[in-house]
Specification:
Blueprint: E1 4-9, E2 12-17, H1 21-34, H2 36-47, H3 58-71, H4 74-84, E3 90-93, E4 100-101, H5 107-110, H6 114-137, H7 142-150
Antiparallel strand pairs: 1-2, 2-3, 3-4
Helix pairs in contact: 2-3, 6-7
C-alpha cells in the first residue's frame, strides 16, 4: 500500500501521508476509547447489523447522526479534526494551483462545508488504520472476515509469507 493516498473531495485534491507507527498506536487507543463507541450506530445504519452493505435508508442515517451527535459533541469533533489533520502530512490542491500544506489558515480554502472535513477524516483514518487492522485481525479468526469485507477486500498476508 502506498505511503501517500490521493483523494478528491469536492473540487479539492488531498494527499495524505501516514502517521509514524507510535503516533498511530496512541491515536488507535484514543479512537477506540472516545470515537468508536459513538460511531457504532452510524456504522450500523450504513452497513447493517450483520456488516452487509445495505441501501442507505435516509431515516436510519438521520437517527444514527442524532445518536452520534449526542455522544460526540462539537468540541470533540473539532479536537479530532485538529489531531488528525496534520499540515506536515496532509496537502491540498485546488484547480490550477500548486499543492500546499493544509494548515489551519488554509482550511477555509480547502473545504466548502463540514461534510468534506468529515470525509477527509475518514480517509485519514482509513489510510492509517485499515491495512494494519486487517492484518492484525487475521490473527483472530472470525473478526478477520468481517474486517476484510468492511475494508474493501484488503487481505492480511498469508502465513506462508
Amino acid at each position: 500500500m502506498s505511503s501517500i493516498k490521493e483523494v478528491a473531495i469536492g473540487t479539492t485534491v488531498f494527499r495524505i501521508s501516514r502517521f509514524d507507527p507510535f503516533r498511530q498506536l496512541k491515536l488507535l487507543g484514543d479512537l477506540q476509547k472516545e470515537v468508536l463507541p459513538a460511531a457504532g450506530s452510524m456504522l450500523t445504519a450504513i452497513f447493517g447489523a450483520e456488516g452487509q452493505a445495505q441501501d442507505r435508508d435516509e431515516q436510519a442515517m438521520l437517527e444514527a447522526f442524532r445518536e452520534l451527535s449526542i455522544k460526540l459533541g462539537g468540541d470533540a469533533l473539532a479536537g479530532w479534526a485538529d489531531r488528525l489533520i496534520d499540515a506536515e502530512l496532509v496537502t491540498f490542491e485546488l484547480a490550477d494551483r500548486e499543492p500546499q500544506k493544509l494548515t489551519t489558515a488554509h482550511r477555509g480554502m480547502a473545504f466548502s462545508d463540514f461534510s468534506e472535513i468529515l470525509e477527509l477524516l475518514f480517509h485519514i483514518l482509513e489510510h492509517n488504520f485499515a491495512g494494519p487492522l486487517v492484518r492484525w485481525a487475521g490473527r483472530f479468526g472470525p473478526a478477520r472476515e468481517k474486517l476484510v469485507s468492511l475494508s474493501g477486500g484488503l487481505t492480511p498476508p498469508s502465513k506462508e509469507s
